[in-house]
Amino acid sequence: MSKILEKDWKKARSMKNGTLDLACQRILDSVSKIISDKEKSAHARYLELWKILEMEDDNISLMFNNMKRSSAIIQLARWKFNDLISERDLESFSPDTHKAINTLIESWR
Fold first, then answer.
1. Do residues 98 and 91 lie in contact, with contact meaning Cβ atoms separated by under 8 Å?
2. Domain hosting residue 51, numbered range
3. Could you give the CA distance from residue 59 to residue 62 in angstroms, rounded to a whole number?
4. In total, how many domains does the chain have?
5. Is the pLDDT of residue 2 over 90?
6. What sign for the dihedral angle of Cα 19, 83, 33, 65?
7. By the 8 A CB rule, do 3 and 69 touch?
8. CA angle 25-46-17, nearest 5°?
9. How does pLDDT run across 12-33, given as a tens digit for each residue?
């Protein structure tokens, strides 16, 4: 994968904190639903909570840890694949970056 253009790299870095916050809020919303489900035992909710946090922690790591220019396109594609950024957000990137992101997403489906 080729390096991302400098202007696209700057844009991606500027989006990181807001996108991370959105991802975390979605996880917290899921956690709230699990915790408030009184139909299940406390132990069942605990196990479900543990499972989702473990899975989501791995996903957060893949999407946000060690963001480098050389891996930015992959991370942007992960954000889009997980509906954390919109098509409109992607349109603010160069055509080459936009195409590379969409190509990756298609290969994951």
1. yes
2. 6-108
3. 5
4. 1
5. no
6. negative
7. yes
8. 20
9. 999 999 999 999 999 999 999 9
